[in-house]
Structures are given as structure tokens and as C-alpha cells.
Amino acid sequence: MLYVVGPATNHQKIRTNRETIKMSILVVGSVAFDDVTSPSGTVKNILGGAATYFSLAASYFTQVHVVAVVGEDFGPEQEQVFRNHNIDIRGLERAKGKTFRWGGSYTDNLNEAKTNFTDLNVFETFHPQIPKEYEDTEFLFLANIQPTLQANVRRSMNGVRLTGCDTMNYWIKGTPKELAETLKVVDVLLINDTEAKMLAGEANLPRAAQKVLAMGPQALVIKHGEYGATIFFREGAFGVGRHPFRAPSLPIEEVKDPTGAGDSFAGGFMGYLASQKKLTRETLKRALFYGGVMGSFAVERFGTERLQSLTREEIDARFEIFRELTHLE
Amino acid sequence: MLYVVGPATNHQKIRTNRETIKMSILVVGSVAFDDVTSPSGTVKNILGGAATYFSLAASYFTQVHVVAVVGEDFGPEQEQVFRNHNIDIRGLERAKGKTFRWGGSYTDNLNEAKTNFTDLNVFETFHPQIPKEYEDTEFLFLANIQPTLQANVRRSMNGVRLTGCDTMNYWIKGTPKELAETLKVVDVLLINDTEAKMLAGEANLPRAAQKVLAMGPQALVIKHGEYGATIFFREGAFGVGRHPFRAPSLPIEEVKDPTGAGDSFAGGFMGYLASQKKLTRETLKRALFYGGVMGSFAVERFGTERLQSLTREEIDARFEIFRELTHLE
């Protein structure tokens, strides 16, 4: 596929070449510059943000459209990262001021970042505008932004077949009512153990999962960091089945930078789904494995470095390793 | 099989009936009385101890012989629990005084117990004596006791084909030299994440695993609590294979009492191995699943209640659920 980010005619071309625009996903979230310190070193001003990690991870599976805001410091070099992966950035709003900046440190416990600074900058007043051409995209991912903005985006898209959504402790605690409204209009919520327990007010994971599902989503993906992820289904959602499903994570010898692992997971998960005709439980299970695979690649290098240089062959080879990791003959 | 704990003639009978004594396992460890408080309630003076949980879990797979010490408060009622599972308690030493007692509490975080009291009692001077009839048992499990005692037991058994071993932070910190000697004579070490990282002095799990394997064991099982377990192999041990293997754990809605989960895991793991003719990587992988299965049953009721009332059919049904939990078509 030869896709150049540009006028609508190119977009049309994709429609024709790939037969349908259904094979695409729209992500709304942050694009940022990050400073990261981990036991492996320190990097400054590297391209980051949930929408960036998500887009790059999903780009190996499907056409990605991005809606985000950047400042005047976002230049051709950063744009090129998206272009190299045929990511459609017509929805990237340019605002006066600086791009969102985040600084974090990881010590030996690579599971948790210590935030050193958060400069929201242009992100502070971000109101996502969905370009007309994106409105009939069939897959949507609402990365971690204010819940009402998430819900508004969802409502402005008429043809969406499946909506994935992320959130965080800040919104769970600070805007629970708004978040509850958002959860009514999303299909799959992807959060981690702590967030799930906090959202449900319940310390037991499967019971917490049932409570969260009762809030709206058809499926709930709980990410366990280095231990993989579990997907819980509403009864009857995506077919029949009694039990949740768990995908492992590969034990990785060198985790250089865990930043963006969750967003890369979401990109692999949602990107794979957007590439599938049927959304069955089996599809969602495979998506859970692909999520783990993309998360495992992301942490091997600082920032998006590893996600920028992958091949689909490498991804599928690691998928097989993940499968073997828990496969009994 | 009709096996009554009693004189050596019965033991001989087993040898004849089952063709070989190879289908048995010896466990050396603690038998205790526990007081446990969890969000589900409080129980007092219930039968516990690593050797008890291990024996009951392993008894569904193989003949179990126990070496432990109990006090005068250990009566016919407790004996009957072992007898009901054909567990050979001729190695159960009766000493003057009280049996080992432990009290612990679990709050919402069921992964960690707060120890309220530890009365070693007769366990304080325990020096395991291996009955002559046990010496050619082919499988051995050294539950969590002082490392030199563990090594002495191993050395006194000539026909052992596979030795499993547990330990804890107390010995890792307090008697590292003694533990290092023990690790040279065991085949499979079963510990949790924190213990593995402490033993290796390394925060990264797969790197910690490599360091622990270099200390002696052929395989290392790292238990992740509610997230399952991973087995790492020395190169060439138990056949060929590049990667570790991970078994999931079933998300359980009601965890009543996590006490003994690790020992039940070890009982399922080692018991299954002792029932197998060949020890291949595939056998060890299945054993890892059976370990998780027995651990998941143990926590459903206080103490050993659930382990006392199982059937092999229930165990195999849950094994299938565990398999489905990560199985892609």
C-alpha cells in the first residue's frame, strides 16, 4: 500500500485499493515530548504520547487516523515518524504554544513511573475535532483524555462498529460521573489492575471485572504489566463462552523504557481487531495476544524507537513465541 | 488402591500392586495448627503446615509419604485427614510438647499475610529422620525448612530421581551459604517473585531466573500468585527448548484463605511429575498447570477444607479450564 498523508483523493484511493474503509481505526489522544530516565539511561525530548504509541503499534495491522493536538515545536522530523507508517495525520491540530511535555523516572521497579513534570501546554485546551473524512471510520480508540471529551468524540461518529477506551486513576477519582457516562458508549475498556479495582471499588479482580462490565462495556481488558492481560466478557458479548481469557507476557531480559507499553498494547489489540472481518471471542483472544506482543516490543528501546522499526514478520514471530509460552501439546 | 497406613507389609503390598514404588513422593516439612483471619472470616486451630497442604494436593496424583514432627495435641482427628487420602504418615514424629502454631491475617490484599504469631514448639528442634522404607522413594519435596536440614535429607536418599525444593526470605537473607549448598543438590526450586529477585540480587525476573539456575537447579518455578507461574529451564535440562513456559491462574471470585496456596501448588506440580514415567519439558509444563489448579482449589475454603474434598475429575475439569484460559484455536 502506498499511502501519502495528504488531500482527500489519497484517502479515496485507499478506499478503492483496500475495497473498504472499514479496515481503519481512528485514535484520539495525546502526542507529547517525553523526558525519560530508567536504569538503562536518560533521554530527553523524545516523541511520545498515547496517540503516538497507539498509532505506531496499530499501523502494522491497519490504516490509522490520528486526532490530537501539537504545538509549534512539532516539526517535520516528528511528522515523518507518522508518515513512515502511513499514519493519516490530517486530524493533527496545530496550536500556538508548546506540545504537551511529560517527564518520568523508573527505578528498579519498572512497573511504576515517578512523574517528574507534566506540562499540558496546548493539550490543556484540547477539544478533539473529528475531520469529516474520518466520521465513518469503523474502529475508534479513545486514549486517556477527559471522559466527556471521549464521549463527545464517540457520539460524533455514526458508523463506529467498535470503540475501545482507556482511562486512568485521575479521571476515576476526579470525574466519576462523567466517566460513567463514557463507559455507557464504549465497547471495550482497557485499564490496569489498580484502575479496575479503583473503578469498581472492589479488591477482588474477577468481581471488580463484573462490576465494571455492568457499567457498560461489552468487554474489559485488564492489563497486568509483566504478567500479561485478562479479558472479561459480558454474558453473550462477542459470542458464547463461560470464562475470561488470559494472554501471557514474555519475560523480557532488558526493559529499557516501559513508557507507552499500555498504549502500544492497545494499538496491537485494536489494530488487530480493525483488520478482522468478524469480531468473535476467538478474534478478541488473538487481539489480546497481539496487544501483549506490541507492548513487549515497545519496552525494548526508549520511546517509540522499537515500534518505528518493526516488520510484520517480527510481530508474527513473537506472536508465535507468546503462543508457545502457554501452549500445551 | 486400598492402602492403610501401617506396618511395612502394607508398604510391600503397594510395591507389588503398583509394580513399582517409583510412583511415590516423600515430603519433608511442617505440620501445624493455624489461626487465620481473612475478609471471609476467622478460623482457629485448623490443620495446616506446608507438608499438610503439599501432601493433600499431591495425594490426588501419587502415593505420598510424610516426614514431619507433631506434638501431643496432634490427635486421631488430624491423623484421619491424612489417612483419608492414603497418605503414609509413618514418618510423622511424635514429640513431647505442642505442635507448631501459626497465626496470620489477610486484609483486602490477599496476596500477603500479616503474621500475628509463630510458635515453633516441637518444630524448633526438628531433625528430619527418614524411615528406612522411604529411602528409595524416587521423588522428594523439601518444603520450607532450614536449608542444611533440606540438604541432609536429600543426601540421605540414594534413589531420588527428582528433588523439588521451597525456601523463603528468612533463609535467603539469614543463611545464604547454607542455602547455596542446598541449591546444588536440588533439581527444581519453587519460589515466588520476591524470593527469586532477592536470591539473585536482581530486579529483572528473567535475569534473576538465569542467576538462580546458575546456582544449581535444572529448573526454576517462579510463582506469581494470582497471575500464575513461570518455569525457567537450564539449557538442555529436560529436553530442548529456547523459552520459558508460563501457566496462568484462574481469576477466582472468592478467595477465602490464601494460606497454603504455594504448598498446594508444589503438591500439584510434584505430585503430577511423580505420576509420570518420563520427565520431559512437556511433562513439566503440564505439571505447572496442575500446580496452578491445586493452588486455585486451596484458596476457595479455609485451611485444607477444599483439598480434603476434591475428586480427580474435578481436578481434571479445572485443568481443562486453565488450558482454555490461554488456548488459541
Structure report:
- With 329 residues, chain A is of the alpha/beta class.
- Chain A has twelve helices and 13 strands.
- In chain A, the strands form two sheets. Chain A has a nine-stranded mixed sheet with strand order 5-4-1-8-9-10-11-12-13, sandwiched between helices. In chain A, strands 3-2-6-7 form a four-stranded mixed sheet.
- The longest helix of chain A has 18 residues.
- The first copy, chain A, is globular and about 50 Å long.
- At the A-B interface, helix 8, strand 13, helix 10 and helix 12 of A face helix 8, strand 13, helix 10 and helix 12 of B.
Number of beta-strand segments of chain A: 13
Oligomer: homodimer
Please work out how many helical segments of chain A DSSP would assign: 12
Shape of chain A: globular
Low-confidence stretches of chain A: 1-22
Determine the N-to-C terminus distance of chain A: 38 Å
Main sheet characteristics of chain A: 9 strands, mixed
The helix content of chain A is 25-40%
Rounded mean pLDDT score of chain A: 91
- The strand order across the widest sheet of chain A is 5-4-1-8-9-10-11-12-13
Query: Structural class given helices, strands, pairing of chain A?
Result: alpha/beta
How much of the polypeptide of chain A forms β-strand, as a percent range? 15-25%
